[in-house]
Amino acid sequence: MPGGWVWAYDGAMVAWRRNLVGGLLGVGLVLCGVLVVQGMTAARLPGCGEGGACADLTAGRWGWVGPVPVSVLGLMGYGLMCGCWLMRCWGWLRVAAVGAAGMGAWFVFVQAGLVGAWCGWCTAVHAVSFGVAGLALLERGATRKGLSVVLGLLGAGAVVLAQVSLEPGGVQDASAVDAVGGGEREDAAGRRVVRLLDGVGVEQAGGFGLVVGEQPMVGEASAELMVVKVVDYTCRECRAVSARLQELRRLAATEGLRVGEGVRPVEVALIVMHAPLSHRCNPYFSSTPERHAEACELARLALAVFRAERSGEIAAGSFVGVHGWLMERERTVAEARVEVERRVGGAVLSRFESDPWIDERLALGAEVLERSYETDAEGRLPQLYVGDLLLIGRPTVGQLRERLEEVLGGG
């Protein structure tokens, strides 16, 4: 490279500009760190809302460059720039800053032109990179600024090319299994029943029927469309999808879904089926991974609340509140018990926690999960049953919307 290492220290920054750049780099490093944690835990970030663009972008197609999350690359990039700043390698700082700004411009285009949704935290990272690049290039004493721009943009272009060309290693898109059978029926007593897996496992006696109104639910039993979600409170992917389902319900009710040739509001309700990934309450498992050690106990707490609510001893909506709280982030049994007792009372919880019905529900969830090994789901969670379709993985809000419209006849 012309000038060798001397170029790296080219153009000492004035104190105020150096301090401002350092402050911006610190902010960018923290923001990238937050996004890395969000991607690892599926946590809900303030300002993003349930199932918002932050989760969809970090978990979706454009959240990865091959097997590496974009947030991790961002953290590495800001770490590199911080190192250059500390060592006063201003030439290399300019190259890295221009590269970061180029990547920022690309991801602004992705959000505006390809995804159609905005992640505030991601955009803040890009804004910081624009600021750092601008301040670094405005330094009067620096030379070879053109070389810095060329090298930086070449680096950004290489990353963009890699993202477009490589298969994203961490994306879990939805997969529809069309042959599982199911949908809504009316039984002999005139009750609304949602059927699951009627077309799977022919050697077994049919599928599974869930009577609407007698199951743990989020939403009204009169809702036009029912979605059955099979979940485990210790499953990180389940938490991510749960948030997106809530956003989907909101969009369906406010913006509407395509039905036939038009678009109209559709009320969507969720039937919650618990399938803990633990041998302690699932006989099809021979052991329990550490991360799922408390899965059965958490499910029992939620189902006890539902039974108490059905009996009329606690207020309507108690199950929805507890279920939503458990799905917000990872919870321990100890903290969950304290929260549930605060909401419904210790005496009520003790009375319903030993209800045999809870064991029946957990056994049903285990059977459904086991039967799903005969589909493309292969026993993975979360699972979403919509009509006769089974969706697996972590579908985005847009993918979920398409599937619902397909079931309604508007896809």
Helix content range of the residues, please?
A: 40-55%
Q: How far apart are the termini?
A: 56 Å
Strand order of the largest sheet: 3-13-12-8-11-7
Shape: elongated
* Average pLDDT score: 86
Query: Which regions contain 5 or more consecutive residues with pLDDT less than 50?
Result: 1-7
Tell me briefly what this model is:
The protein is an alpha+beta fold. 52% of the residues lie in helices and 12% in strands.
Plain-language structure description:
- This protein has 411 residues and is α+β, with helices and mostly antiparallel strands.
- Helices cover 52% and strands 12% of the residues.
- The protein contains 13 helices and 13 strands.
- The longest helix has 27 residues.
- The N terminus is likely disordered.
Write out key terms for the chains shown.
13 helices, single chain, disordered N terminus, alpha+beta, elongated, six-stranded mixed β-sheet, three-stranded antiparallel β-sheet, 411 residues
Write the layout of secondary structure elements.
Elements: H1 15-41, H2 53-59, E1 64-65, E2 68-69, H3 70-87, H4 90-115, H5 120-137, H6 145-165, E3 175-177, E4 182-186, E5 192-196, E6 208-211, E7 217-218, E8 225-231, H7 236-254, E9 257-259, E10 262-264, E11 268-274, H8 295-311, H9 318-328, H10 333-344, H11 346-353, H12 356-371, E12 383-386, E13 389-392, H13 397-408
Parallel strand pairs: 8-11
Antiparallel strand pairs: 1-2, 3-13, 4-5, 5-6, 7-11, 8-12, 9-10, 12-13
